[in-house]
Amino acid sequence: MQTSLAAAHDAAGAQHYPKGTLYLVPTPIGNLADITLRALHVLSIADRVACEDTRHTRQLLLAYGIDKPSGAWLAAHQHNEREAASALLAHLAAGERVAYASDAGTPGISDPGARLVEAVRAAGLGVVALPGASSVTCAVSASGLAGDGHFVFLGFLGAKSGERQQAVQAVAAEPRAQVLLEAPHRIAALARELAPLDERLLTCCRELTKQHEQVHTLPAREFADWLAQDPQRQRGEFVLVVHPAARSDEPAPLDTGVLELLLEQLPLKSAARLAAQITGQPRNALYEAALKRRKVSPHDD
After folding, report:
1. What is the predicted pLDDT for the residue at 232?
2. Which run of H or of E encompasses 180?
């Protein structure tokens, strides 16, 4: 791992890293190798490392030959994020580089970090976000989403029944792709809740980047049965990608109300043309509807 750190300094060391700046550092979501050279360089040069669990992040740094003194660590997790922001601001104001890393993945994406950024921005200090490991982008890539690639990130739907029920209803009503996160003890319940999506495709990503990683795409109505077929399928952390709703090839019903009003005052072709401009409906379809209404041939107008 020492070689990796040397390579990190060679690859990223030439860039300027301002002091008095908060650096958001993504960390591996399961596979230790999924850390960037730039992330290692920043963690190495940082005067202070803020993180969810100092023991967890310290083990990551030690694996790559980065050893920080005990006074260089700052705990900043979901239960003390606002309080930790005050201490972090003091270090930044003193001209220190502070790296923030959540336990896994990208800070601020269903992980602590957003409140720290908010406080730093409000204080007029700098924030630099590094790209890197993210279960969200990993799952979207593995799902093979077609179309325009747009998706909505929902994260965890919540545990309270009423709130969760509303969230599931919103998932069903949203035509775009959606990305959900779920814990193993609630995955079976979520599978049952998503069953009414029926034939809408769902990609289940389990234990991404780890040894027993599994990615499977199936209709939502089959998800609960698929999980129940093997107890192993309900273990680990889950990222679910709900694919976009299928688009119907059926044309929208023609609204001839405007056309009928215009036909009382205008010739057939003029009425169809103006109705198309007003309603945005196909001119040819309106013209055919007008022909049927008057029961004349195209040559009669």
Report:
1. 94
2. strand 177-182
